[in-house]
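> example.struct
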């Protein structure tokens, strides 16, 4: 079944959320006041994606149960969905309605975060395929 891929995706998504939370606090309190919100997000996003590519690599390397491309796709999609759900739940906890959270995805800085979801979901597949090519 896909249990190992789902567990790996859950871990991947929660790690992305935790790192994004820390970087978001730094962005909001330090970088955005000095450079503006949009510039701060454009600085934060590559750092987050670079770190999550490294984490995807580490998770895939450690799990021998992730057998093929299907498992890697499940891991990436699960991680991306977990991240989005965690962001929504944080927004709700901070008093932002689900409608407002959704609308914010289509305006800066939300659109940058939404654009980062694609690479985030693809990293497990990309690093997993690279692992298999090196093994051959």
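> example.seq
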């Amino acid at each position: 079944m896909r249990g190992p891929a789902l567990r790996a995706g859950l871990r991947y998504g929660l790690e992305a959320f935790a790192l994004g939370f820390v970087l978001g606090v730094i962005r909001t309190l330090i970088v955005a006041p000095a450079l503006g919100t949009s510039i701060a997000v454009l600085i934060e996003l590559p750092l987050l994606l670079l770190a999550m590519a490294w984490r995807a690599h580490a998770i895939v390397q450690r799990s021998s149960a992730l057998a093929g491309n299907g498992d890697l796709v499940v891991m990436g999609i699960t991680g991306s969905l977990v991240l989005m759900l965690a962001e929504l739940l944080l927004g709700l906890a901070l008093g932002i309605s689900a409608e407002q959270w959704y609308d914010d995805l289509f305006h800066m800085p939300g659109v940058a975060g939404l654009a980062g979801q694609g690479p985030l979901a693809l990293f497990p597949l990309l690093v997993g395929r690279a692992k298999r090519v090196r093994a051959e």
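> remarks
The chain has one domain: 3-135.
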